[in-house]
Amino acid sequence: MMEVFVPVITMGILGLLFSLGLVFAFRKLRVYEDPKIEEVSEMLPQANCGACGYAGCRAFAEAVVKGETTPESCPVSDAEGVKQIAETLGVTAAEVVKKLARLHCRGTHEAAKDRGTYLGISTCDASHLVGGNKQCSYGCLHFGDCVRACPFDALYMSEEGLPVVIEDKCTACGKCVEACPRNLFELHPISQGIIVFCRSLDRGPVSRKVCKNACIACGICARACPEAIIIENNLAIITDYKKIDPEKIPEIEKCPTDSIGRLKKEDEG
Amino acid sequence: MSTKTIGQEFIKGLWDENPVFRQLLGLCPTLAVTGAVINGLAMGLATTFVLIFSSLVVSSIKKLIPSQVRIASYIIIIATFVTVADRFLAAFFPPISKNLGPYVPLIVVNCIILGRQEAFSSKNTVWRSLIDALGMSAGFVLAMLVLSAIREILGAGTFLGYQVMGAWFEPWIIMILPPGAFITLGILLALALHIEHRTKSRK
Amino acid sequence: MTNNAFILQSSPHFKDKDSVPKIMYAVIASLVPAVAASLYFFRFRALVLLVSCVATCLVTEALFLWLRRKPLHSLFDGSAVITGLLLAMTLPPSLSVELAIIGAVMAIAIGKQVFGGLGYNIFNPALVGRAFLQTAFPVAMTTWIPPATLKIQTATFATPLGNLRFEDAIARGTLTPLKDLFTGNVGGCLGETSSFALILGGLYLLSRRVIDWRIPLGILLSLTAFTGAFWLANPEKYASPLFHILAGGLLIGAFFMATDMVTSPITPLGTWIYALGIGIVIGLIRLFGGFAEGVMYSILFMNAFVPLLNRYTRPRILGEGRKA
Amino acid sequence: MKLSVRMVVVLTSIGLLSGSFLATVGHLTKERIALNKQREIEEAIIQVIPGTVSTQKLYEERDLSVYGGKDEQGTVIGFAIHASGIGFQDRITLMLGTNTSLERTNRLAILDQKETPGLGAKITDAESFLQYWENRDCSGAISLRKPAARSAEELLPSEINTITGATISSEAVLGIVNSSLEHTRRLLKEGKLSSEAQDVN
Amino acid sequence: MRDKGLVVDTKEDLAQVEVQCFTDACHKCSAQSLCIGQNQSKGLIMVRNPLRASPGDEVEVEIPDTKYSRYLILLFGSLLVASLAGLGLGSLLSPLLPLSSSATSLIGLISALIIAGVFLSRYFRAKNKATLYPVIIEIIKKGGRHG
Amino acid sequence: MELVAIFISAILINNFVLYYFLGICPFLGVSKKIDSAFSMGLAVTFVMTITAVVSWVINHWILIPHELDYLKIVSFILVIASLVQLVEMFIRKISPPLYQALGIYLPLITTNCAIMGLALLAALRDYGFVEAVIFGFGSGLGFTLAIIIMAGIREQLDLAEVPEPLKGAVIALIVAGILALAFNGFIGMIK
Amino acid sequence: MSTKTFPHGIHPPEFKDLTADKGIESLSPPEKVMIPLLQHFGKPAKPLVQKGDEVLLGQKIGEGQTLFSASVHSSVSGKVISVDNYDHPGGTPVPTVSITNDGQDNPFSEKKETKDPFSFSPEEIRQKVREAGVVGMGGAAFPTAVKLSPPKDKPIEILIINGCECEPLLTSDYRLMLEAPEDILKGAELARIATGAKRIIVGIEDNKKKAHEIFREKIQSFDFDGEVALLKTKYPQGAEKNLIYALLRRQVPTGGLPFDVGVVVQNVGTAKAIWEAVSEGKPLYERVISVSGQGINEPKNILVRIGTPFKNAVEFCGGLKEDVDILVMGGPMMGIVQWSLDVPVVKGTSGILAWAAPRPGLEYPCIRCGRCVDNCPMTLVPTQLARYVKFDDMSAAEKWGVQDCVECGCCQYVCPSKIPLVHWMRVGKNRIIALKQKKSA
Ligand SMILES: Cc1cc2nc3c(=O)[nH]c(=O)nc-3n(C[C@H](O)[C@H](O)[C@H](O)COP(=O)(O)O)c2cc1C
Ligand SMILES: Cc1cc2nc3c(=O)[nH]c(=O)nc-3n(C[C@H](O)[C@H](O)[C@H](O)COP(=O)(O)O)c2cc1C
Ligand SMILES: Cc1cc2nc3c(=O)[nH]c(=O)nc-3n(C[C@H](O)[C@H](O)[C@H](O)COP(=O)(O)O)c2cc1C
Ligand SMILES: Cc1cc2nc3c(=O)[nH]c(=O)nc-3n(C[C@H](O)[C@H](O)[C@H](O)CO)c2cc1C
Ligand code: SF4
Ligand code: SF4
Ligand code: SF4
Ligand code: SF4
Ligand code: FES
Q: What was the ipTM of the complex prediction?
């Protein structure tokens, strides 16, 4: 009898002690949270990129559940995902305005001349520190810091030597904007018509010398559409994208260096 | 919970979620007992036994266990089956039991088993849990076999004790010793990652 | 005067003439006496091992460079040649070529390339290769033949240290004379026998400032202190420090292997600790361990501490800790 | 509150259930395991004391047990010393058979070792090691011949041959044997090895 | 280490914050499912709240992880030393007591641990709030729920 | 000195990680930063020492006298789990912030086979009380040594161009292999 | 006399003999000058003139706005043709005033100082120095007026006049010391008065024995507590932290300034500029530069107007040789490469150098030889720092002291692997600053 009794009792006591300990621990450790947060969180892309302005997908989920923000504020979610979240929470989703990163330079290897033989570290920020490897002091340095910074593999370096945005993959997270030492990226709504593809503040003759595709501040575009385009510091600047009259676009696109206009096929991924 | 078919449930353990190569779980026994195929096999089977029975028990009583004590309950259940396996080996296969030393009892802390209970059996039906356990075990046994085969063949020139390499072959003793275990597993893992990478990029 | 001709770079624009290949080839040059000695003492065996190790190292290195899509010029930086040479120099002359080749592959593959190649390895590649061989083929790696100059025909032969450690040489009065240790007329690994040749090479490296003087000095000091203490206490049982310095792989280790810059600390204090540590571990293994020789293990063991040493012995920055 | 109670109850009952299950399993396997152990020992004793028909445990402490091997008549024809100690890397357990006066060895058997395969593990190998242990004079300490003698004939009666390349393992076995022999001799002198003391079985 | 997080709850001068790194790390950890402290797998931590952040705020938290390691080393180091000392003392005292040496060592161990525990809890009581809690160093974005 | 031999051999020769392959999970998992490796090491050492004591007591005072050795596995694992729980509660009591920092690797200790392996090995080898304690302490130190070395190396390898497929666990395993080779040098030092 | 020095450092080839014995020649002002509004450490000056304005020699054309900013003056008389972005030897374009020279050099201010300069109060001296737009001419171009205003709680004991000129090739400071020792010492005395220092030490390397002798002789005639110290020829003897250590065995705290150890360091050229500013009210519109290097046909030391294009200076020295492939402003160790000869001479230009660089050695991975560690005058661990930056572990880089790197280039000079260590340091510092800015934004 003892042979069975002792082990059973031993195990029973061990189990009892153990469970008492757990009960004790459990009662000190409880936290409450809204189960919806978990649900929403699972619907998010889990990229944790921070593009929504929150600390990560969970934080965003929490904010959505609490009504502090709307489901479509996550730029990475596709329309489907947004709808799903909105349904879960019983709200209607607003229309998503998809934005894309756009490069404001057309200084390809061919167009923009090299300053000399660059022997430094092969990153844009390093090159920028010594004045850059390009004669143009404002344009793309071609080392692709932006490409490396993109968490979504939405950028690649083209043969011509400029970063290209793959529109399907770009989530407008803004990492490339941060990464570029020359601030050549900007986020634009996908429908954006006209963009200035140059950042050079050099005087016309100088910029013409250093880059074939430079804005030479000739003013054709500004004259075509003075309410939206001005020339400042030797560069065309679009002051208000909304005021560009679509009718005038052909006029604007007469730019002798093509440094303002609509996106061309070769700029797209 | 799971939307996989039964077949997928089983197959995933072999590769996609292979406990050793993909999840890096249960590396201790994998490294320790794979010096000879027979030991690796025995260990794999003992683990299989424990995994299957614990999964069956856990999935059938999952509703009864409050989640706060689930880990503790799993541990007791697992330990029970480990003891059974250990006693069984000691009673009927004393030489193997001696070779495996403390590693059979150590199945109790093998993360694969506890992990499967927590991640799968506690949420799925008995039937699915059984398939999952079978798949995982198969994956584990497979890993043990591959590793122990490499180590035994290179390290002793034998497979399951039978001479497979010619007399010319000078056994690489290092392979049966700890350094060989680490290095072989490392290389196998690298291969696994490489294959995974390849198949992924092809998709 | 074309604009595009100028160089663009960050300062400084003056650079010293020394380069990695120059350093590596200096080491190779300094190994010439020892290689010559090994050829003299072990004749054809030495040649075969040296050639096969160097060739295998180069081939393996090339293979990995190709796999990793790295420029092939790194193949000629000389480091793989050193690895091959030093591996061969630490092999027993009777070792078969197949085993030597396995060792050389392992040295480059798991000793160097898996870490990212030149400059990134934690452990001394040649010694990783040798340790692999020693553990994989312990018998072959501890079977010695006498040098050709001795003109004796025996199947087995003890190294001076093996003789000391396992055959009670002092008690039996058969301890190898220091003179033979100095010239190299003893059994042992290819390159470790001739202390004279090694010292010659070592002095050359020191004078060219290729190696850090702290390392050989620290090793010699701590080994002398360690073995000296035991020797003074009981000269009947323990050999003199000089014997320990001249015997076995100590000199090749202290001058050529512990000094491998990649696997030794970069800070001065760290270097001292590393060197003293190697000496003590060698002493421990030689006097109390299971092996007659401990140079390889102690260098590998201390290699493992190098990252920790670097981290915890960062020199004080000029002005650090002063109040602003 | 209800949850806490449930936690305790569930865990305790799992414990109780597992306890009873294990008690059963333990009970069922106990004899067999004990038998296995005993058989292993017995086989070793028979191996190291040829002619043994039955065995008896004469003395036991940690790392050293002494068994008596008996012939048909029940007289002790030799001692089997079961001892262990540290080898090259891990423990070595061995069984040494001697005559009843502890002056000659019969045979040596290695029961458990984790020496390097192909090297230290040769201590389990009759040809390279165990053969030298037959019929050695062990009235004093046994010693090791190093470097190894070419044949058994060259050895002194109290000498055994080293395994080339595995001196440490050879020395370790020798050390275990010598110290356990000495210990046993002391026991014998103190009369603690009387065969009536206790019976195995 | 610094990390961004979201304030979930506040209590006196402490706040409960969900931080990213813990969740990230936990998602990758193979022992994740075994985490006994449920808080951990959600990345919930208690932090000092000198800036008076309120729930919903997004904050930056400074987590003194090297400091933790130092104190953990101290904690376990002293427990270790105490237990070894207790064991040693206990076994030394065994001839004086009518107990086996293992029993006295055990008693020594337990008493040493209790003593060490008392000292440590005194020591840490002073340290806890002052230096050990992570602290909110910046409120990045005010949440919606104030007042 | 038997005790010294047990101690040294537990640290250098029969190192838990490098020879017995016990505690590989934390060895690979918590060896990315030296600081946390060190505190993990000490935590394990402490728990190991105490486990050695407690498991010896359980084994010799309860299991062996009642011939319950088939309860060894269950009772050891439960004892270890409770012990970790106890440590956890103690830390929680004296320092909630430390508890919250440690929380991440406490579970790793519970399910760590090094602790269980220690209890089992001590029982298997029939160690006496003091021996068991020394064994536990030494094994803990051995674990700590191995994990700190590993952490140092991995911090350095974070700054190396390790080929992509070899990063992480793979290179860690290979380093462990070479470490095991290097530690081989101490074999035979204890006789 | 024993020579003083500091630990570590290197001995690059000097090549000073190219220009050491050549007296300072004046380069006549060019047709057109381009005067950048940023020639100093800090914010650009605010332009005071517009396109079309007539300006006179020495007229202020840019007003330093903030504390860390300096005024800029015209270096010729003539007409402003543009105020625009223009290339700068620093690498990136800055706002620049371009002026056509009318060749008259009509001075802006006629009034000569009548008062004895040494009777000015410290505040007056600072005021005049600030008015004259004087900036440090030792390299960093730090506004001198700021340096002459030590904080109240940091009394200054010693003023060090830095005459080391430890960079290879450069000899402009040397010539200045030979040709205008009195002006330098007078300027030093003014700086001493402004800072309230008790003592002046002039530090000169022992490869400039002649200058040392002259100074030892001249200093006798001044009644301040002065000393001329001979320093070992070693690079970077002139770096202020090392100089202070060599002369005084004091260590400037990391992240601290010479103030913190009661010291102010001024370059010899700066001292002369201070004297001219205070005694004559002459703004800093011209300076001495060395045009040298094996790639220059006739290396010389010349006095040039600020804003003169490099091209004019180089042509005055016989132009570039055919095989030139590197053009540097400043010394070969710390100077900045130029890609064109169109950039103007600025206040911080100490030399224009050109030579045929040997083919760049292949870059290898760091072999941890430790030479960089053994030679870093700041006792940093450059190899580790570069790795941290490369693998983007900025907090570790910060902890290991990237920000204490003075970019002297010793580490990179000795590195057998030819790793651009200094470039990595600069990238590292830059990234840390960017991170901090992002934090505070
Ligand atoms: C990996 C390795 C394993 C070894 N294993 C053993 C062993 O199990 N037993 C042993 O005695 N020697 C072993 N040795 C060799 C010993 O360290 C030592 O060299 C040898 O005992 C010396 O004996 P000898 O003089 O007969 O060569 C091993 C060596 C290596 C490298
Ligand atoms: C923010 C800042 C403030 C400084 N303030 C002073 C100062 O008040 N007094 C001074 O003597 N130097 C000051 N310095 C200048 C430095 O000490 C140093 O002289 C200057 O950076 C040029 O040094 P270098 O030519 O050795 O590079 C300051 C530097 C910085 C960056
Ligand atoms: C590496 C290095 C080398 C320097 N060498 C000199 C030098 O040779 N002569 C000099 O006057 N200043 C040199 N400086 C600048 C001094 O540190 C310091 O800034 C200067 O003497 C301050 O005087 P200033 O403000 O009048 O220019 C050097 C700075 C550094 C970082
Ligand atoms: C002084 C010196 C010693 C060296 N010693 C070794 C050595 O012992 N083993 C080796 O494989 N390579 C050696 N090398 C070559 C090289 O540094 C080594 O292969 C690197 O570890 C590869 O990254 C040495 C190089 C130098 C300059
Ligand atoms: S000129 Fe304009 S387009 Fe050309 S490189 Fe510069 S910024 Fe780019
Ligand atoms: S866009 Fe900017 S970051 Fe990208 S390659 Fe060009 S310069 Fe570099
Ligand atoms: S790290 Fe900086 S201070 Fe040190 S040698 Fe290099 S450049 Fe000079
Ligand atoms: S000098 Fe160059 S190769 Fe040597 S340690 Fe420094 S960075 Fe590495
Ligand atoms: S399997 Fe051993 S620690 Fe996880």
A: 0.88
- When divided into structural domains, chain E yields a total of 2
Query: Residue D90 sits in which domain range?
Result: 41-189
Cα of G238 to ligand 3 centre, how many Å? 5
Strands of the G300-305 sheet, one edge to the other: G24-26, G300-305, G286-292, G351-355, G326-329, G336-337
Number of structural domains found in chain D: 1
Range of the domain at G165: 1-29+111-358
Q: Is D164 in the pocket of ligand 1 (CB under 6 A)?
A: yes
Measured in degrees and rounded to the nearest 5, phi and psi for residue D83 equal -140, 165
> pLDDT tens for residues C87-109?
999 999 999 999 999 999 999 99
Give the position of tokens 């393992």. Answer: D169
The answer on E43 and E13 residing in a single domain is yes
Q: What CATH number does residue E20 fall under?
A: 2.40.50
Residues 6 or more apart whose CB falls under 8 angstroms from that of F89 comprise: A21, A24, A25
- The reply to whether E146 falls in a domain is no
d(C-alpha C253, C-alpha D190), whole Å: 56
Cα Rg of chain C (Å, integer): 21
Domain boundaries along the sequence of chain F:
2-184
Give the Å distance between the CA of F113 and the centre of ligand 9: 5
Among G358, G389, G417, where does a domain finish?
A: G358
Using an 8 Å Cβ cutoff, are F185 and C300 in contact?
A: yes
Pick from F32, F38, F39 the residue to mutate for testing the E interface (most E CBs within 10 Å). Answer: F39
The ligand 3 atom at the shortest distance from the C-alpha of residue G267 is 26
Inside any domain, residue E147: no
What is the tens place of the pLDDT at every residue in D41-50?
A: 999 999 999 8
C-beta of F113 in contact with ligand 9 (< 6 A): yes
C-alpha dihedral over A93, A97, A98, A99, to 10 degrees?
A: -140
Each domain of chain B, given as residue ranges in start order, spans 7-146
Intra-chain end-to-end CA distance of chain E, in Å: 31
From G331, G358, G385, give the residue that closes a domain: G358
Would you give per-residue pLDDT tens digits along chain A (269 residues)?
566 677 778 777 877 777 777 677 666 544 445 556 666 766 776 665 666 766 567 667 777 777 777 777 777 777 777 777 777 776 666 666 778 899 999 999 999 999 988 999 999 999 999 999 999 999 999 999 999 999 888 999 999 999 999 988 888 888 899 999 999 999 988 777 788 999 999 888 888 889 999 999 888 988 888 888 999 888 999 888 878 888 888 888 888 888 888 876 554 44
Is E18 in contact with A66 (Cβ distance < 8 A)? no
DSSP code, position G286: E
Q: Rounded to a whole number, what is the distance in angstroms from the first to the last CA of chain G?
A: 55
Q: Which domain holds residue E121?
A: 66-130
How much is the pTM?
0.90
Looking at the domain assignment, is residue D2 inside a domain?
no
> Residue B93's CB: how many other CB atoms inside 10 A?
15
Interface with A, mutate which of B1, B69, B80 (most A CBs under 10 A)? B69
| Nearest beta carbon to residue C289 from set F149, F163, F185 | F185
Residue closest via CA to ligand 6's atom 1 equals A140
C89-to-A3, C78, C260 alpha-carbon distances in Å: 67, 16, 15
Distance separating alpha carbons of residues A237 and A192, to the nearest angstrom:
15
User: Which CATH number fits the domain that encloses residue G12?
Assistant: 3.40.50.11540
Ligand 9 atom index nearest CA of F112: 3
Is B175 within 8 Å of B155 (Cβ atoms)? yes
- Is residue G65 a part of any domain in this protein? no
Closest-lying ligand to the alpha carbon of G385?
Answer: 7
Which residues of chain A neighbour C6 with C-beta distances below 8 Å? 115-117
Which chains does chain A touch, 3 or more C-beta pairs < 8 A?
B, C, D, E, F, G
